[in-house]
Amino acid sequence: MTAAEIKIEDLFEKDIRRDIDGVIKVDKEDESSVYTELDEYVVTGESLKHFDNFFRNYTAAMEEPTDRIGVWISGFFGSGKSHFLKILSYLLENRTVQGKTALEFFREKNYRSCNSCQYRKSR
User: What is the pLDDT of residues 49-69, one digit of tens each?
Assistant: First the structure.
């Protein structure tokens, strides 16, 4: 196939014509939706730093219980706050969908963009 024959859609792993929900809905928890959310969640260096920071603090609070812990998620409209929180909830639960846990979905993702994160996938 020559460069002239390549179409933009050929560059993508998944069908670009599939239905994609434009908004993450907290109450949409059917197996198919949850699988898609976990499978297609893109871990950026920035989001991985936030996951890493959350789990470091969460682990510390579990090791030495305290009532002085809270989480504040802030960002502009459409910046991914709800999506981040929903994925975080799946990770905390280690939600299983179609025989695969949330942690397994994340282990398959590429973490090379976050050199300081303890959950970074080594290659």
Answer: 999 999 999 999 989 988 887
Confidence of residue 121 (pLDDT cuts 50, 70, 90): very low
Helix (H) or strand (E) holding 100: strand 100-101
Q: What's the token pair of residue 53?
A: 């920071």
Residues 6+ apart with CB under 8 A from 74: 81
Q: Please, what is the Cα angle at 44 between 42 and 50, to 5 degrees?
A: 110
CA distance 42 to 106: 10
Q: Give the list of residues 6+ apart from residue 111 with CB closer than 8 angstroms, or none.
A: 43, 48, 117, 119, 120, 121
Between CA 40 and CA 105 the distance in angstroms is 9
The CB-based long-range contact list for 19-25 (8 Å cut-off, 24+ gap) reads 24/82, 24/83, 24/86
